[in-house]
Amino acid sequence: MALTKKRQQFYDNLLSFFRRHLRMPTHREAAKLNGLKSANSSVQYHQALVAEGFLKKDESGNYIFSSPVDVWPGGNDNNAVIPVLGEITAGAMQEAVESDLGELTFDHLFPNVDNVFALRVKGMSMKELDITDGDYVLLSKTELRSGEVGAVLYNGETTLKKVYKEQNRLRLKPANPEYDDIILEPGESEEVRILGKYVGHLNEHGLFKSPF
User: 5: helix, coil or strand?
Assistant: First the structure.
């Protein structure tokens, strides 16, 4: 469904704000971004975008984008790229020369980007890896080796932990001493699924790739 010109501009400005700040603007901020006279006008635009399927509300009642492909760089051909403007020495000083060396996209940062998806983190069990509540963790649908960080599904419940394979069980180890290990010993009728391998995360400080 195509949006009206004004609603499309409002939606595009929401996207631009989110990519810069990794959060949705307040109604007051959204009104200012779009030259609206009041925050109530932003509420009306948000409600219209929900009705047309471009936005939705999460469990806490906050507005979020309906389609993650619109949000993350590299998700479609219209997303922003990072220009490479030249080289910089990591040794002795040298003359600064600007040149066009192309562009970086999400594909350069994460090989096989088509297999990458994002989940929002709830909780602090991985804080020693600087993954904290509210961050967006990036996961790849690739093989997870013992000791790597991944998202695990078991009996309808999920968690993000370091996953250690031990004979007929899994040990899920947090990166926070305040949390205990979780031991999974599935029975014959139970299934443990690895949803994805941790490859990086996003928060208000920027994008961080996994060091592993």
Answer: helix
> Over 50: is that where the pLDDT of 75 sits?
no
Give the Cα-Cα-Cα angle 32, 78, 206 (nearest 5 degrees): 65
Sign of CA dihedral 119, 120, 121, 122: negative
For residue 211, is pLDDT > 70?
A: yes
Which of 74-83, 94-103, 192-201 has the weakest average pLDDT? 74-83
Output the pTM of the full model: 0.57
Residue 28 CB coordination number (10 Å): 12
Q: What is the distance between the alpha carbons of residues 150 and 174, in angstroms, rounded to a whole number?
A: 11
For tokens 């806490």, the residue is: 60
Catalytic hit among 37, 99, 122, 125: 125
pLDDT of residue 104: 66
All domains of the chain, ordered by start, with CATH? 5-70 (1.10.10.10), 113-209 (2.10.109.10)
Please check the confidence at residue 163 and state whether its pLDDT lies above 90: yes
Could you identify the residue written with the tokens 């594909």? 107
From the list 5, 122, 140, 161, the catalytic residue is 161
The pairing of beta strand 157-166 with beta strand 182-184: unpaired
User: What is each CA distance from 68 to 74, 158, 201, 212, in whole angstroms?
Assistant: 11, 20, 15, 25
State yes or no: is 125 an active-site residue: yes
Do residues 163 and 195 make contact, with C-beta atoms less than 8 angstroms apart?
A: no
